[in-house]
Amino acid sequence: MSAIRREALLAWYDANKRDLPWRRSRDPYAVWVSEIMLQQTQVATVIPYYERWMRRFPTVQALAVAAEPDVLSVWQGLGYYRRCRMLLQGAKWAVEHGIPQSAAEWIKAPGVGRYTASAIASISQGEPVAVVDGNVERVFARYAGCDFAGPPLTRAAWAWAERQVPPDRPGDWNQAMMELGATVCKPREPLCGACPLAVDCFASRESAQGRLPVVSAKPKTIHVKHAARVHFVDGRFGLEQIPRGEWWEGMWRFPIGEGDPIGVVRHTVTRHRIALSVSISTQSAPAGLQWYSLEELKHLPMPSPQRRALKLAVEYLAQGQRLLDFERAETLLDGVDVGG
Q1: CA distances (Å), origin 122, targets 105, 107, 296
Q2: What are the b/e assignments for 182-204, b being 16+ CB within 10 Å?
Q3: Which of 69, 79, 204, 305 is least crowded, fewest Cβ atoms below 10 Å from its Cβ?
Q4: pLDDT given for residue 270 in this prediction
């Protein structure tokens, strides 16, 4: 890619970049949080979570001293909770060892891989290192006419991107590449007429946008059935903490148990399609549960499917007049993310 094309892309970025909250700061911590949240999650989804997180944990020091349940509670609804735990571990590490000053140092932090390390170092610290995500891979494949797929495509995209980074504006360059892929060189119906690189792009010349990048075969979908038993006794709900080694470890759920179902909550985790059957008991409960009012559940870290099971249970209990103040219950539920 010539210097002229670099200038064209940066000029396009200066004129068209989205006003995103994490772009208003060069603080390495702020960039770090945004990059972790943006992994496998759309920008529009991340924005309110990022703003809420930064109000609650404005500095790496504030996060490092936070309790894990509090951190999970702020994160809940965003999914992929391992990212949250690793961010907390990373904050503790950074406070102990100091904020890294290069990509090579950032990659030593818990939960920080090559992409995140390079993004933080280039955007917040001006280090001329490349960043490659799915958007950059797509731009590369179309621009260079690369018909690789999977890991070979990723390796080729990194090698190509490393040759393109300008020494004077590496952070803006990397963000421009990702922005181009996200808003112009889109997976479907790319806006080639608005692309600053179209004149040199293989796919644009050859009308190959539809077949590039080559898509790897999708992994087989796994269907899973789970059951949740909602225990509601004396106006309180009984829950248990999810043990380590299971999805959403450390968060809270209704205990596993069968009964006459009041509904089914469907949820997706990577390639797993989960059907969570929900039943209710108002008579007795197994030992070992912790009991919470609906008000308290608002602040308890619970996975999205469990929040949706709670909503289903509240609606059912209201119909049976076991929850007398249903308007109050609706108000509480409206204030909590229960997922899609």
Answers
A1: 13, 13, 42
A2: bbbbeeeebebeebbbbebbebb
A3: 69
A4: 85
Contacts for 311 with CB less than 8 Å, ≥ 6 apart:
333, 338
The predicted structure's pLDDT at residue 321: 57
In this predicted structure, what is the pLDDT of residue 330? 54
Q: Pick the closest to residue 237 from 184, 174, 307, 189 (CA basis).
A: 307
What's the pTM value of the predicted model, to 2 decimals? 0.84
Among 35, 127, 137, 179, which one carries the catalytic annotation? 35
What are the residues whose beta carbons fall under 8 Å from the beta carbon of 12, sequence distance 6 or more? 176, 180, 196
pLDDT along the chain (340 residues), means of 10: 76 97 97 97 96 98 97 93 96 98 97 97 98 97 96 97 96 98 97 96 96 92 96 95 92 95 92 95 91 92 94 87 52 47
Contacts of 202 (CB under 8 A, 6+ apart): 142, 143, 144, 145, 208, 212
35 has catalytic annotation: yes
Contact of 242 with 252, CB cutoff 8 Å = yes
